[in-house]
Specification:
about 375 residues; alpha/beta; Aspartate Aminotransferase, domain 1; Aspartate Aminotransferase, domain 2; seven-stranded mixed sheet; three-stranded antiparallel sheet; 12 strands; about 15% strand
């Protein structure tokens, strides 16, 4: 199998998570809303998982709403606030490097309900200036949405500063933390966010389950109507096995964070970077040199096309951008927003490590990528 360096796209489901889920795919099949024993066992499992998610992000369990994905959590936050505040304001602030789940939700509101949207620029490292946020605020601003960590370059945004500005004006702040939860320590009160979206498959839970943190007092409308599941914010019988898996992944992530796992992943990432720098003259780092996810390395190989380079290194499974953008031939919108020219943006490769990545994996990947880069450069010179 190829060396897997695409953990920002998805992670394997951890064995501990699969084991926690197993009973709820079998005998413990009850509906959490049922009053009998089968239902009570399912409800207990959902409650336990809610507490495990809450513990990882530093909130009370009743502030966690389960969803089917991070994209749904983002949509619930953005559309939910905007729809609840119809008639009170119609202006939303976001950034140019947001995940499509955020930007598309904002554009939908702009197109269908007439909301006005301010898309903030970022600097060359992909970071928003909190002062730009302040300057963009208007009397009708109802929501600010800035991601915690970028999925392509890993840059961590100054969310706490943005939150202080938002709250000065009484505006809710939403952050997409799909890439940062489980990879770095965070707490919603320290960040100051009112809404935080996460998704399980970015940190060793299965695909198809996510959650939204909703600060007490934050008002939003439901998008899925029906019975009163999830505090009335997300109708539908809970997906008990996957919710259990999300809770188990949160508990596992907490253990790894406390044990210093991010430092080990960072050392391996930097080892990979150093090896590539030594072997590939002119290699360029994309993203903030320090304030970024410990597992993420986005680099441009001079004179190469990223897709061609990866095709020439089949022993390495990586990406030229986020998985949600794969298949396109135009430059990544994130890299373009950072001011990178088309040549450098198209030469970019995202390498994202995980807890199973070893030093041998890193060394072998660096050798394969450097060899491919040399072949591409040689072919281009002919």
């Amino acid at each position: 199998m190829a060396i897997y360096l695409d953990h920002n796209a998805t992670t394997p489901t951890a064995p501990e998570v699969r084991e926690a889920m197993r009973p709820y795919l079998g005998d413990r099949f009850g509906n959490p809303s049922s009053a009998h024993e089968h239902g009570r066992l399912a409800r207990q499992a959902v409650d336990r998982a809610r507490a495990e998610v809450a513990a990882l992000v530093g909130c009370e369990p009743d502030s966690i709403v389960f969803t089917a994905s991070g994209s749904e959590a983002d949509n619930l936050a953005i559309k939910g606030v905007a729809m609840h505040l119809l008639g009170e304001g119609d202006h939303i602030i976001t950034s140019a490097v947001e995940h499509p789940a955020v930007l598309a939700a904002c554009r939908y509101l702009e197109r269908r309900l007439g909301h006005r949207l301010t898309v903030l620029p970022v600097d060359g490292s992909g970071m928003v200036d909190p002062e730009d946020v302040r300057r963009a605020i208007e009397p009708g601003t109802v929501l600010i949405s800035v991601m915690h960590a970028n999925n392509e370059v890993g840059t961590l945004q100054p969310i706490a500063e943005v939150a202080r500005t938002a709250h000065e004006y009484g505006i809710a702040l939403h952050t997409d933390a799909a890439q940062s939860v489980g990879k770095v320590e965070l707490a919603v009160d320290e960040l100051g966010v009112d809404l935080l979206a996460l998704t399980g498959h970015k940190f060793y839970a299965p695909k198809g389950v996510g959650a939204l943190y909703v600060r007490p007092g934050t008002r939003l409308d439901s998008l899925i109507h029906g019975a009163g599941h999830e505090y009335g914010l997300r109708a539908g019988t809970e997906n008990v096995p996957y919710i259990v898996g999300l809770g188990a992944a949160c508990a596992l992530a907490g253990q790894r964070l406390r044990a210093g796992a991010p430092d080990e992943v960072r050392r391996l990432r930097d080892r990979l970077h150093e090896a590539l720098q030594s072997a590939v003259p002119g290699l360029a780092l994309n993203g903030h040199p320090k304030n970024r996810l410990p597992n993420t390395l986005n680099v441009s190989f001079p004179g190469c096309d990223g897709e061609t380079l990866l095709a020439g290194a089949p022993s390495v499974a990586a990406a030229t951008g986020s998985a949600c953008h794969s298949g396109r031939t135009e430059p990544s919108p994130v890299l373009t927003a950072m001011g990178l020219g088309a040549e450098r943006a198209l030469a970019a490769v995202r390498l994202s490590l995980g807890h199973q990545t070893t030093a041998d994996d890193v060394d072998d990947a660096a050798s394969a990528l450097a060899a491919s880069a040399a072949r591409v450069a040689l072919a281009s010179a002919r």
